[in-house]
Amino acid sequence: MAENKKQHFVSKFYLGNFSFDGGARTNLIRVAELKAIPGIGVAGQCQDAYFYGKDLALEKALST
Length: 64
Known about the structure:
It is built from two helices and four strands; from the N terminus they run βαβββα. The protein is α+β, with helices and mostly antiparallel strands.
């Protein structure tokens, strides 16, 4: 697996504060589809592959 491929543009720390079970799962609403998705995992939300770039300089700076 590539190093730091999954980069969050909303920190899991912040998303975990909206969790109902201690930081693992939350509820999601897809506004475009007007669809509610209950109990979705926090870890896979608000992330994209290499969101901050493939050179990882910014990602490593933000992670500290």
